[in-house]
Amino acid sequence: MDFQLSLQSEKARSAHPDQPLAIDPGASLGEAISLLRAQKSSAVMVCEGDQLVGIFTERDALRLMAGKADFSAPVSSAMSPEPVTVDENATLAEAIQLMTDGGYRHLPLMSGDGKAGSTPIGSVDVRGIVHYLVEHFPNTIYNLPPSGAESSAEREGA
């Protein structure tokens, strides 16, 4: 199948979405960071019941660590509220476009059409999309010619 056609026809849920990792908005920042570390994840969805209210990512955690953060504060104080989401029926091309336009590395994958009443069913991230591409287009990915920037003008060890 053609590369462009595949991205325009395959659903976002094909991109190896992670299971939804969720935390309550009242949980502490320390708990959120511990959860990220324990699950070896780079994002956690902040949910009130089944409803997504925000997302807390490793970028948020790094920003907090760079400053003087109170890790006992609620995760809701540092999350990105009302994150951009992608519904389970969106195409990979649509998910990639949303990620590119917004500079996002994670998109919550929502059941149904992503509107009111939808619940998070996973998380589409850059890593999952790359895995999809490698899995479905190995010859294209593995056989890319090297760019000229990868070679040195000087001899090594000279």
TrEMBL record:
Q: Which InterPro entries match?
A: CBS_dom (IPR000644), CBS_dom_sf (IPR046342), Diverse_CBS-Domain (IPR051257)
The answer, when asked if Isomerase is one of the entry's keywords, is: no
| PROSITE patterns listed in its UniProt record | CBS
Q: Which Pfam families match?
A: CBS
| Entry keyword set | CBS domain
The segment annotated Disordered runs over 1-22
Looking at the record, the residues that make up the CBS domain are 15-71, 79-141
- Keyword tRNA-binding part of the UniProt annotation: no
What is the official name of this protein in its record? Inosine 5'-monophosphate dehydrogenase
Origin species: Pseudobythopirellula maris
